Structure formats: C-alpha cells, structure tokens
Amino acid sequence: xxxxxxxxxxxxxxxxxxxxxxxxxxxxxxxxxxxxxxxxxxxxxxxxxxxxxxxxxxxxxxxxxxxxxxxxxxxxxxxxxxxxxxxxxxxxxxxxxxxxxxxxxxxxxxxxxxxxxxxxxxxxxxxxxxxxxxxxxxxxxxxxxxxxxxxxxxxxxxxxxxxxxxxxxxxxxxxxxxxxxxxxxxxxxxxxxxxxxxxxxxxxxxxxxxxxxxxxxxxxxxxxxxxxxxxxxxx
Length: 235
Known about the structure:
Blueprint: H1 7-16, E1 20-25, E2 28-34, E3 37-43, H2 49-57, E4 64-70, H3 74-90, E5 93-98, E6 103-108, H4 119-131, H5 150-165, H6 170-177, H7 182-188, E7 194-198, E8 201-204, H8 206-211
C-alpha cells in the first residue's frame, strides 16, 4: 500500500463536505479550501511519531488538520484509544480510510483538548511522593521485579521489628516505629510477610524473612504524614 492510495477516498470525502481539494500544495499532502477556510490532511500508511510531528507543524498554517491512515493499520488495531487521545491532545483530527472500499470517514474532528482532571489519582501520587523515604528506585526500573514504595517501606520496617523483637502486638510495632497504621499493614498482609502467633500477636513469616534481603532501601522512620488507609496506597 502507498500513501497515494489514500488520496482518492480522502479527496472524495472532503469534496463531499464542500471543499475544493488538491494534492501536494506546499508541504501539505492534501489541501482543501472552502471560502477562506483551509483544511490540511497528512497521509500515512500507519500511525507514527513522524506523522504526528508533521501534522502538528501544519496547525500554524491551517484552520484544521487531520491525519489519514488506513482503517486496518496496526496502530488503530492495537493502540486506538491511546492514539486518538494523543491526537486530541495535539488538536488533530483523524480520518480512517477503507482502501479496498475506496471510502474515508472522519473519526475525530480537531478540537481544543481539555483533559478531565483525575483528582483522586493526583492525590495518591502526591501522597506517595511525600511518604516515600528517600529515592530508592531508579527511573525506568523493571516494574515486574517490584518497586520500593512507601507502603513496602512501612512493611519492611514492621518486618525488621518483628525479626528483632519476635512475636509482638500491633500496638508495640506502632509505638516502636511511630507508625500509626501498623495494624493496617499487619492485618492486610499484602506481601504475605506476617503471620498470627497468638491472640493479638504477629510474627515474621518464613516468606517475609526470605524476601527482606531483596529490599535494601531505607525503611520509614514514621507514619505517612498524609493519612489515608492502606488500601489506596501505591504498593
């Protein structure tokens, strides 16, 4: 498939909308005019960073800019949602071309992007940043191996306490570590590091003892200053 295969359906689409359409006008793959309005279309056989950069550069000379790709291209098949979101963020539109059927249709019109603020997620990120002791991870860490989070740091602090002191109550861990939510971590037992050792007593499990050595970052010296419960922490 060639980019030129996309042109006839795109030309027919724009002409059906009342535009006078010509190809290769200056840097524009496709230029359509209607009175003083100028619409630009970038043709590519697949979605790519180059396509987005070229299309975004046309915004300064056109009233509207679209990218046109085959409806069957891998980008739309695998990453449609993210690709469309990125187009909206850039103020670009999307035309999907059914090359065999020689038809084109507008999927997204260019518009000003106003993302919906996810205040809950934002608060979670700010709380995690504030609560995490030091900077124990390297940027680009392999998340499949696990990350050091504020929650994990707190769990490590409690695990170290139980290793040194033996079976203890949550109140003892709370007092020793200054962690107001020690009971939440012990009771939740997200990593399987703790086990019941009697009424109100917790001990370090064999799994906890084995896995502690993997984590060498500093453990927290106190409770999470932002409060909240353990279920909404980054673990």
